[in-house]
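Hello,

I think I submitted the zinc ion job twice by accident. Can you confirm which output corresponds to this input? Input:
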Amino acid sequence: MPEVVFPLDSTKKFTEQEKLGHNRWHPDIPAQVHVKRDSTFRVHCREWFDGAIHNDDSADDVRDAPLSTVHVLSGPIAVEGAQPGDLLVVDIVDVGPIPQEDSGPLAGQGWGYTGIFATQNGGGFLTEQFPDAYKVIWDFRGQQATSRHVPGVSFTGIVHPGLMGTAPSHELLAKWNAREGALIATDPERVPALALPPLPQDAILGGLTGDAFERAAAEAARTAPPRENGGNQDIKNFTKGTRVFYPVFVDGANLSMGDLHFSQGDGEITFCGAIEMGGFIDLHVDLIKGGMSTYGVTENAIFMPGNTDPQYSQWLAFSGTSVTLDGEQRYLDSHLSYQRACLHAIDYLTKFGYSPEQAYMILGAAPIEGRLSGVVDIPNSCSTVYLPTAIFDFDVRPSANGPVQVDPGMGVPRSSF
Ligand code: ZN
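Support: Only one job matched these inputs. Its output is below.
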């Protein structure tokens, strides 16, 4: 096992750990760990809400999920010799949940969760159809995930970090705040918000204290969006064996990571949509000096996905076009056509006895594939969502016999009002 350079004790809160991570992006957050080029090391990660979501049958915790506290990230990790303009080469050597024998009371040890955020607290891809909070608990056995809240499905997880990235420079941070602020200003009262401005409340900035903390907390970027530094890309194919090339914006690169997922469908459509967990990640790092200009990787990371994905060979796919549910024609709107494809799949699964919420959770958590199938055939873009048929315990394909009925069990826990 590689040396654990960022240890976490799963019985303690994030702020009580031996090494303090962070939950905002800022160039002044000092590195907590220093590693050499061409080295391999282990990092522990807390699940993104630091244990606020419980293994029970109520969604009140998801309804009240403290979005100002996310994401709790491990790092920053400085890489010796890294300078702005370099590419940081990160290999995901291994990634997984904390082993069962280390089981503690907090999320991520043998189980994880998927939630639907209420429109009032984050929303999601289909928030118009699903405005309330719901939660599903998933149990892990080896690579398999099952849920007492969604009978009739089991699938092989596609374990990956939802969030990893390098620290921004002061210049880059100012650019983020300017462009996101301008977007918010177009409709500041919108629910859910168009973007999340800097928020000193609940900011954790590693080793920063005093005036330096106050100054940084007022401008530090929230971790929800993916940006030029990587960040919360939620790419399900960042599995074991992946190599990522991140632009370096500050000396040392200052790499951070967290938001581990046991599994996720393309799009992470319920927003809390992966199977969220705590765990470990083993990384190898190296540098391509001056690589940003050599390869033109100045904005946004590039990567080579690992090849340890679940092996599913048969799919049932649903298509959608850029026409609203009310029948209004939109011009090549691929966001809308993917929503329509997902709603199409949800509607189909309800014919087998699932509630719409159960079906939505399956699309968020199982390793479904989403594709932009056509983006030029005016006026309709065509998006598709592919469900592996083998994740269902029954035959999910259409046939002359009609759909078998699954016992919906206790269903998906909702929140009280
Ligand atoms: Zn996540």
